[in-house]
Design a protein that fits this description.
homodimer; 573 residues; alpha+beta; BirA Bifunctional Protein, domain 2; Rossmann fold; five-stranded mixed β-sheet; 21 helices; 18 strands; 42% helix; aa-tRNA-synth_II (chains A, B)
């Protein structure tokens, strides 16, 4: 895509957002991006004209630079990062709550570590230039680096590992849908041999805890089991070698009607129409644990070893999820297939109501085991679909987290590498794993409009130290230093003799709740003035509450205690 | 460097650490790395033999993979990350304490943004492969992306911005010195026009706060001023066009004796020996604010505009640093020059005693303005030296943080780009900046031996829920869920009916302080048993304190309150 194409696309996006009366924050972001692109084009045009000798003297520069971030990437400024850090804190706190410990791997891997893991999406891998050394590529997800680490080290006996960081896909970026080339994922994985479905229930409970704590609104965790799906396909008469491709067709049922999916199965993939119809009967089922009764009363299905094992797994899982009190968030959905080949058991994805199309209702929180209405996300363009993680291209469609059980991936790594070390091969080969991957950019996109509407602070400074009259610069510095030494986030205006209103304005920009004002005479008596600053919403905008209150006189040496015992402090800190 | 070379180097390192009776953690790390390399070599050998058709049948694999991280990179496992997260928390808390807000830029930039910023070190930039699009490269530091962002956006009026993340330099890695190709830096910068030396004093106070809070031992912040240096050079008779190269020679005084530096000035750089001797007289000065008296009484020097301005800046800075109570950490050192061209004012670097060679003494904390003994780090290999940030190759030598004032960099970006937008050019051109860059890997290397010696926990789980006898799996899950809902980090063994000693062992591995034991009969009465777990050091090793204590019977519905009011909780949480 040329810069001109990008500008055209963004102009269209900006106009459409305005016509739709979209969220002001979204419109503002689109406008800003458009401005940046146009500015970049201005520079480019100047460059072109310079080539033709067509440039005015003053415009000539040898080192003219296009000031923009690379295609498909963006900067996150202070207000946006304040929101992102809030999200990260909630996610990481939950990871620690569930006993996870952190792993950090390099942002790039040896290319052969990534090769053959992502099917036809391998073309999206960002390669580094071979500058005389190894062939390297940016990581595509966190799962493959984790599996490499587990195969190399055995994981040091650690069962629960989390990773939060950016991953890279050289996809065609579509800014209007938030499809980025650099995006952040937060992964939590449990590796090792445990008793059936216990780690699985832990992961589902973790995902539910995070979604609750993020306060994203109602959500549903759709789940299914690969063995049940495979059993259904076998029982319906799908040939062994067509199971994966038919599974991929089923995966499209959330965006295509059955008649289209059937057509793909029969016309494109050569499946017998009667077999397809039998599959159609099965995959329409969705609901809660009562679906197990329907399946277990199906003697033909129960006669299939895979299906029976999968159904038993799900029965056990539902028992556990009841103990974890998350049953009301679950939709057992036989049409959920997920694209990636290496799943071997439970699979799931989370959909938030706020991110679903109009008409979608998340699981009713009051009904523990009531069938959940099937979310019907609107049609979306098809991606390669060989992708385990949250597909960031799906923004505006639904899934904000996804994952499943992959019991053989670490073993595949170990057997491909450790040919000389039979023992490590054996131990790594028996490293079953289950994990979840949370799309942090997707969550940011959902939370940001609310967040910016609440005022858009970019820091949580608590005290702004000011001075009247003569500036009292060193006295301000001393007080700032003393408050910071007590752990109180404090700032002041880096000017020698600033006017008082200028200092108030600087503190108000970040909604700092306490203004501490120094005055020469007061200070000699050991006193400072503290004014509480309050903000409230009026007509949807946040405004400072003006007050005739002259502030409290507080002894300087009692200031810390005074601040920490105030009501405002307790509300903010 | 071939794999065989790497193995030879690591074998030498491992043997030398053992001979030196080095820290066990360091020896263990060296041993592990050596093991990984040898394992990788085994695989490589198998590959070679396979090429020659020399491989046993069972060893043949089509997709054989070298299981290692790329050259100059490493994984950080759970115990190491627990230490790193502790460091990050301290640094980020201080950034917030000082009113900073966060910026996040992409990990790669358009190549032309980085071009011409790093002198001859530009060859160390990691380029991405041109896969039909922009020329991209991994970021080399945080300063250039920040300057790009400031030139693009003006910074949204934000004066204080911090960034924590990895940067990349395709240097020849030397593992034994900790020189890595991927390493983490934490930057804090203040941009904008303020009154003289106030932001400078803020940055020095911030750096001091961080080093205090990290508890790294005694440290010194060496500082100097570019204008004083330039003034000295001019006054001594250095020609204008030789000032930067003579400055680079002076920068080597911390690793070379004066006679060598003088030789470089005269023999290599063609400076008149009498001029060099005059410089030698100046740059031997170091100490506290009293050095100002020596300089201000030097009429020749004070007649130089640059020198006079620099000396006035330093006088003002010392006044402020006294208010900030950090004067005792400062060494005003006229031999500090720092390599990077774009510094325009104050420059500084921090040296920790633990990282300095034997014999070095940090500033005496009791002497506010006593001359500080000059640290004499041992000779180190010369790098290109055109590097603003902490040079990670210097591990084992000293500097763990560095920075300075760069008032023209943002303006250079703006004028190179915004040729068509005169107004933004003007505003960005007047964006003076000062910043500090903290070498997180260096700090990790200093703290890790202590940290791992304290037990090497990798998570801070507080409660381990267990069951006697029948397993009580769902009851354990319910209690785990309830405790987590109260924010208590809780875990349990993911087995159906694990034996009690196995559960204790699992909890003890992470030094979990509370064991909560469920028993069928007790639970019917609404009771659980809580046993506090304690560890202590014996002969330098951490061991669990065995206790005959049978534990306390606590009502299940009062468990949260009981836990949170216990002494152990207050110690740990």
């Amino acid at each position: 895509m040329t810069l001109a194409d990008e500008i055209a696309e963004h102009t269209a996006l900006f106009n459409s957002l305005r016509l739709q009366n979209a969220d002001p924050a979204e419109i503002e972001a689109a406008k800003r991006k458009l401005g940046e692109l146009k500015k970049a084009q201005g520079v480019l045009n100047a460059k072109e004209r310079e080539k033709k000798g067509d440039l005015a003297e003053g415009e000539k520069k040898k080192d003219r630079i296009l000031l923009k971030t690379p295609k498909g990437t963006r900067d996150y400024g202070p207000s946006e990062m304040f929101c992102r850090l809030h999200i990260e804190r909630i996610v990481k706190d939950a990871f620690a709550l569930f006993g996870g410990s952190c792993l950090d791997t390099p942002v790039f891997e040896r290319k052969d570590v990534l090769t053959g893991k992502y099917g036809e999406d391998s073309k999206l891998i960002f390669d580094l230039m071979d500058q005389g050394g190894e062939q390297l590529a940016l990581r595509y997800d966190h799962t493959v680096p984790l599996a490499r680490w587990l195969a190399m080290t055995g994981g040091g006996g650690q069962g629960k590992v989390w990773q939060v960081g950016k991953v890279y896909r050289r996809d065609q970026p579509v800014m209007s849908k938030g499809r980025m080339r650099e995006f952040m994922q937060a992964d939590f994985d449990i590796s090792g041999t445990f008793d059936p479905m216990i780690p699985d229930a832990e992961i589902v409970s973790l995902l539910s805890t995070i979604l609750n704590n993020l306060d994203l609104g109602e959500y549903t965790i759709k789940m299914n089991h690969r063995k049940i799906l495979d059993g259904i396909f076998t029982v319906c008469g799908v040939p062994e070698d067509k199971i994966r491709t038919i599974s991929s067709a089923v995966d499209k049922l959330d965006k295509l009607p059955w008649v289209e999916v059937k057509k793909e199965m029969t016309d494109e993939k050569g499946l017998d129409p009667t077999v397809a119809d039998k599959i159609g009967e099965y995959v329409k089922h969705k609901g809660g644990p009562e679906l197990l009764d329907i399946l277990t009363s199906d003697a033909t299905l129960m006669a299939n070893k895979n299906a029976k094992e999968g159904i038993e797994d799900m029965a056990l899982l539902f028992t556990f999820l009841k103990a974890y009190k998350v049953l009301d968030k679950i939709s057992f959905d036989l049409s959920l297939a997920r694209g990636l080949d290496y799943y071997t058991g439970l699979i799931y994805e989370a959909i938030v109501e706020g991110s679903a199309p109009p008409g979608f209702k998340a699981a009713d929180a009051s009904a523990d085991s009531t069938p959940v209405p099937k979310p019907k996300p609107k049609s979306k363009p098809k991606d390669a679909g060989e992708d385990e993680e949250v597909d960031e291209s799906q923004i505006g469609v639904g899934s904000i987290a996804a994952g499943g059980r992959y019991d053989n991936l670490v073993g595949q790594f170990a057997s491909a590498a450790a040919s000389e070390s039979k023992s490590s091969k054996k131990s790594a080969a028996s490293t079953p794993c289950i994990g979840v991957s949370i799309g942090m950019d997707r969550i940011f996109a959902l939370l940001w409009p609310k967040w910016v509407g609440l005022g858009g602070r970019c820091k949580d400074t608590m005290v702004y130290v000011m001075a009247a009259g003569d500036g009292l610069l060193e006295e301000r510095m001393e007080l700032v230093r003393d408050l910071r030494a007590e752990g109180i986030k404090t700032d002041f205006l880096a000017k020698k003799k600033p006017k008082l209103p200028v200092q108030f304005a600087a503190g108000e920009k970040d909604e700092v709740p306490f203004a501490v004002i120094l005055g020469g005479d007061e200070l000699k008596e050991g006193l400072v003035t503290v004014k509480e600053q309050r903000w409230e919403f009026r007509d949807g905008a946040k405004v400072k509450v003006e007050s005739a209150d002259k502030g409290a006189k507080v002894r300087r040496d009692e200031l810390v205690a005074w601040l920490k015992s105030s009501d405002v402090w307790k509300t903010w800190a």
